[in-house]
């Protein structure tokens, strides 16, 4: 694999990076959006994407160009950059979508790769086999073997300076996705799209989407740029970035506009239902829902598509800023509350807190405890793992939600959801967390897990715990040898 991807910042598995695209002579900052351009149906011209949205990269379908009487020869003679009047990087797809939809395509793997090279594609794609969710395991394994052989064959094709995608398939089987990713990473190919996830997103199966992504990430190195194929709705960008995705391609901006649908970070609205625009992009400033509905069909579609792109690019900038400030998880949690299926996706992400913790910065902005899910964040997992390494002074230690007590050799503070905190770390991240006054029982249970870690790591120390109205579910998790007292209650 070529050294084309450099990481600049990170939070959880989310990262800001630089993808060098040699043939285009550009470096694309990630997370990045690739608007899909249909050569025959251009809702917005590529030159407009560059001028109005500062688009650095886009994607078009190489197979459609291959079979196009209108554009094939022009693409071969002029090259994509001139054909599209675009100076950034251009990725091309291979026809895999058409293969999954219609069962066959009229081109071989080597032919479509050479065609993509010849039309000046900057990032090309071999013909993988997109196995849909819930396919039988035997089918998923057989089609994955076909994809694997095509990736190996792609290495032998002379692609010049064109980077080449190595799609990761495996349906909804995490072990197949992980193995496929490991095999893809072992090739000389460059970018790693996680494929066949559109049906999951269309079905609001965000938890399974995240499980698929995290499985693929386990098989890839940290220097592997990851593309989530077909992920174009801004409501899930923060979640997908936190899971480790770097590139997103969006046909949604145009397809939704064609159907009169208006994208937001909280979901999708229908233009006919809107009385006010909740957005301040140029389109929404210059129009009201009523005046936009009154536009001619083509003009209305273009304006809606421009809005959809504005909200998409704005969300990616918001995600990048959250990574820089170290509060990506807070952003993901806020976005997740927009839909129950997004909450499922966020919880699936937290199920892999141990994996996220390996990439999560040790220190960043203030930890905001926003809900029961906050107690499962990787920062809490890390602190609990390290409790056994902390030294305890003396034979008798008080773990207290209140004041010190001279009868003990040392007093550690109790801070939910982390648990016991030694005096020397009381002002360290993430123990300075901002928390609501009315905590849920999950936070106390997490703190109790921290107490248990410390107690079990120090079997010769006598511990007492002075709590303030902890729920029974948390107290039940405290080891029996700890003397438990409730503050404000006479003993």
UniProtKB/TrEMBL annotation:
GO BP terms, alphabetized: tRNA wobble guanine modification
InterPro entries: ArchSynthase1/Queuine_TRR, TGT-like_sf, TgtA, tRNA_ribo_trans-like
Pfam families found in the cross-reference section: TGT (PF01702)
Catalytic activity annotation: guanosine(15) in tRNA + 7-cyano-7-carbaguanine = 7-cyano-7-carbaguanosine(15) in tRNA + guanine
Active site residues according to the UniProt entry: 93 (nucleophile)
Superkingdom assignment: Archaea
UniProt keyword annotation of Lyase present: no
Keywords carried by this UniProt record: Glycosyltransferase, Metal-binding, Transferase, tRNA processing, Zinc
Pathway(s) annotated for this protein in UniProt: tRNA modification; archaeosine-tRNA biosynthesis
NCBIfam families referenced in this protein's UniProt entry, alphabetically: arcsn_tRNA_tgt (TIGR00432), tgt_general (TIGR00449)
Family according to the record: Belongs to the archaeosine tRNA-ribosyltransferase family.
Protein name, UniProt field: tRNA-guanine(15) transglycosylase
Annotated source species: Natronomonas aquatica
């Amino acid at each position: 694999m070529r050294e084309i991807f450099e990481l600049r910042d990170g939070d959880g598995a989310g990262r800001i990076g630089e993808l060098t695209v040699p043939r285009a002579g550009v470096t694309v900052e990630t997370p990045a959006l690739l608007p899909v351009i249909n050569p025959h149906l251009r809702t917005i011209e590529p030159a407009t994407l560059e001028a109005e949205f500062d688009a650095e990269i886009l994607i078009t379908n190489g197979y459609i160009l291959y079979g196009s009487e209108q554009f094939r020869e022009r693409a071969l003679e002029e090259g994509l950059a001139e054909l599209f009047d675009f100076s950034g990087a251009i990725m091309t797809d291979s026809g895999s979508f058409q293969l999954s939809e219609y069962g066959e395509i009229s081109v071989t793997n080597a032919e479509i790769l050479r065609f993509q090279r010849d039309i000046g594609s900057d990032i090309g794609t071999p013909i993988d086999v997109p196995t849909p969710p819930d396919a039988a395991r035997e089918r998923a394994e057989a089609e994955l073997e076909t994809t694997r052989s095509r990736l190996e064959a792609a290495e032998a094709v002379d692609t010049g300076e064109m980077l080449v995608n190595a799609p990761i398939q495996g349906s909804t089987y995490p072990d197949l996705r992980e193995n496929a990713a490991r095999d893809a990473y072992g090739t000389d190919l460059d970018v790693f799209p996680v494929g066949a996830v559109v049906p999951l997103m269309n079905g609001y199966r965000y938890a399974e989407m995240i499980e698929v992504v995290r499985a693929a990430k386990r098989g890839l190195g940290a220097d592997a740029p990851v593309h989530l194929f077909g992920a174009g709705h801004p409501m899930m960008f923060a979640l997908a970035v936190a899971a480790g995705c770097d590139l997103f391609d969006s046909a949604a901006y145009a397809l939704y506009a064609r159907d009169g649908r208006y994208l937001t970070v909280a979901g999708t609205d229908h233009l006919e239902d809107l009385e006010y625009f909740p957005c301040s992009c140029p389109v929404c400033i210059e129009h009201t829902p009523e005046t936009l509905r009154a536009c001619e069909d083509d003009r209305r579609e273009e304006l809606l598509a421009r809005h959809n792109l504005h909200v998409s690019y704005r969300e990616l900038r918001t995600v990048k800023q959250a990574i820089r400030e170290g509060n990506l998880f807070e952003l993901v949690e806020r976005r997740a509350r927009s839909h129950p299926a997004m909450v499922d996706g966020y919880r699936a992400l937290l199920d892999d807190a141990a994996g996220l913790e390996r990439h999560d910065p040790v220190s960043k902005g203030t930890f905001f405890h926003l809900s029961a899910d906050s107690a499962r964040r990787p920062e809490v997992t890390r602190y609990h793992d390290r409790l056994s390494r902390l030294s305890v002074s003396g034979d008798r230690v008080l773990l207290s939600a209140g004041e010190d007590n001279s009868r003990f050799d040392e007093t550690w503070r109790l801070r939910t959801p982390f648990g016991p905190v030694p005096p020397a770390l009381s002002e360290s991240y993430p123990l300075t967390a901002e928390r609501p006054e009315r905590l849920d029982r999950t936070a106390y249970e997490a703190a109790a897990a921290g107490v248990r870690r410390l107690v079990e790591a120090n079997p010769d120390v006598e511990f007492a715990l002075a709590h303030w109205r902890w729920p029974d579910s948390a107290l039940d998790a405290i080891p029996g040898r700890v003397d438990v007292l409730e503050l404000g209650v006479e003993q």
